[in-house]
Amino acid sequence: MALLACHDPDPRELVADLRAAVRASTSLGVESIEWSQISESEIDEAWQRDVRPFQASPRLRVVPSNSVGPRDPSVLRLSPSLAFGTPSHPTTRSCLELLDSCVQPGERLVDVGTGSGILAIAAALLGAAHIEAYEADRSACRAAIRNRALNHVESRVEVIEARVTPESLRKLSDSDRIDGVSANLEPAALLPLIGSLARLPRPGGWILLSGVPRAELPTLRESLGSELLDPVTERVVDGWWTGLWVSRPRSPREPEADRPGH
Ligand SMILES: C[S@@+](CC[C@H](N)C(=O)[O-])C[C@H]1O[C@@H](n2cnc3c(N)ncnc32)[C@H](O)[C@@H]1O
């Protein structure tokens, strides 16, 4: 079964296109393709019903948003709807574990591709002072805004609807002091940004990257700029890689125009 986000109230055209694509590229009989439309609230209800509380890291437990209990910074309440970002995916799970090891109280962070907001909200619960959480998809932004309210971190998690580019990252690194960066992105989105992401954290700050299948690691390492970062730890879970680095002190003579990824 496939779940597709469709903002059109009448999805028949989308279904016709899907049938045509299946007919053109596979030997599957399109008559067997059935579809039904489910609303975001039905998806939420299924999540509440089927998901069990999960100890995502030493200090954080993720629970469905309707779980009862007092307000508690060790509990992250989640209602992802159609957005990516639950501990059932190995990249999100690995990021949550590593975030727990690196976020320091009072830090200013950037989360690129926030999806449900899970990493940004986790960082706030772990004590970060401010997180700029960028997300290109409007319905994911809505989910992130809902989730930050569920966790009472509205004043610290800023959800920004924008597609991040190397240029926007360069402006960001020029304008702000950034202590840490998380980016769990699919390879096609991550690889073009990687040189600019590596330059975001202040010297001594950290960067957490994920979303890359093991086979793409050589390409990622090549683009990363090992002169900028020292590795702290990396892990591969179910074939998905996640890595944490700290930023090295910058050489004062490093020419701006030679920056990789710019
Ligand atoms: C793999 S999901 C990760 C979600 C969440 N951060 C997590 O760790 O589970 C990647 C998200 O990044 C968003 N995205 C991809 N490229 C982006 C870009 N250039 N700028 C902003 N968001 C982007 C996608 O819409 C998607 O919601």
Largest sheet: 7 strands, mixed
Within the largest sheet, what's the order of strands?
A: 6-5-4-7-8-10-9
Kindly state the number of beta strands: 10
Mean pLDDT score: 87
**What is the fourth-level CATH superfamily of the largest domain?**
Vaccinia Virus protein VP39
Shape: globular
**Helicity range of the residues?**
25-40%
Strand coverage percent: 15-25%
Q: At the third CATH level, what is the topology name of the largest domain?
A: Rossmann fold
As residue ranges, the low-confidence spans are 255-262
Question: What small molecules are bound in this structure?
Answer: S-adenosylmethionine
Structural class: alpha/beta
CATH class of the largest domain: Alpha Beta
Q: Give the CATH architecture of the largest domain.
A: 3-Layer(aba) Sandwich
Topology:
Blueprint: H1 12-25, H2 40-50, E1 54-57, E2 60-64, E3 75-78, H3 90-102, E4 108-112, H4 118-125, E5 130-135, H5 138-150, E6 157-161, H6 166-175, E7 180-184, H7 187-190, H8 194-198, E8 206-213, H9 217-224, E9 229-237, E10 240-247
Parallel strand pairs: 2-3, 4-5, 4-7, 5-6, 7-8
Antiparallel strand pairs: 1-2, 8-10, 9-10
Bound molecules: S-adenosylmethionine.
S-adenosylmethionine binds at residues 84-85, 92, 95, 112-115, 118-119, 134-137, 140, 163-164, 184-186, 189, 211.
